[in-house]
Amino acid sequence: MNTYQIRIDLDRYRPKIWRRLLVRPDLPLSEFHLAIQIAMGWENSHLHQFIKDKKFYSERLEKDWTWDDWHNEASGAMHRCLRH
Predict the structure, then answer these.
(1) pLDDT tens per residue, range 26-54
(2) What is the rounded average pLDDT for all residues in the chain?
(3) Which pTM does this prediction carry?
(4) Which of 28, 38, 39, 73 is surrounded by the most beta carbons within 10 Å?
């Protein structure tokens, strides 16, 4: 199986803050989100979304009916969302 090597950089910080992650192509975006949280030492305390070709992938909040063009991040795999 292939492995993606992904570098995550935080803009506007000096010295530069970055992490490199190795992930499976079939990793759901929900799990990729958790990997980012762990790698950066964050506590999952802010909303997030992934966007690819005008498709929005995120975790839907309870009782939130405002996102018509929303896609469940658990159903979006890494290989569908990265540039080739």
Answers:
(1) 888 889 999 999 999 999 888 788 877 87
(2) 81
(3) 0.74
(4) 73
Domain CATH number, residue 14:
3.10.290.30
Q: What is the tally of structural domains in the chain? A: 1
Q: What residues make up the domain containing 23?
A: 4-81
Reading the block at residue 57, the tokens are: 């992938």
Number of C-beta neighbours around residue 75 at 10 A: 11
3-state secondary structure of 34: helix
Among the listed residues 42, 76, 43, the one whose alpha carbon sits nearest the alpha carbon of residue 59: 76
Q: Which of 23, 9, 8, 14 is nearest to 77 (CA)?
A: 23
Distance CA 44, CA 34 (A): 8
